[in-house]
Amino acid sequence: MRCLDDRFVWGRKGFDTKAVRTIVRLRKKDQAERQEEEAILDLYKAALGMA
Q1: pTM of the model
Q2: 15: helix, strand or coil
Q3: Where are the domains of the chain?
Q4: Which of 3, 17, 27, 39 could form a disulfide with 7 if both were Cys (CB 3.0 to 4.6 A apart)?
Q5: In order along the chain (51 residues), what is the average pLDDT of each group of 10 residues?
């Protein structure tokens, strides 16, 4: 495999390519940025009664 972003290969191996794309996107961010994004999503979900 060339890299984690090669969705075709991951799809052929049975992985969910949407999930792989999300993981790749998250790996490119630093920890603080990921935590901030998660906190915002948690806040919005709570406001919408989804938490």
Answers
A1: 0.64
A2: coil
A3: 7-47
A4: 17
A5: 66 87 91 96 97 78
Burial profile 17-51: b = 16 or more Cβ within 10 angstroms, e = fewer: eeebeeeeeeeeeeeeeeeeeeeeeeeeeeeeeee
Cα–Cα distances (Å) from 1 to 8, 23, 43, in that order, read: 10, 16, 38
CB 9 within 8 A of CB 16: no
Q: What per-residue confidence (pLDDT) applies to 20?
A: 85
- Tokens standing for 41? 């999503």
Q: At 9, list the tokens.
A: 């290969």
First CA to last CA distance, the chain: 38
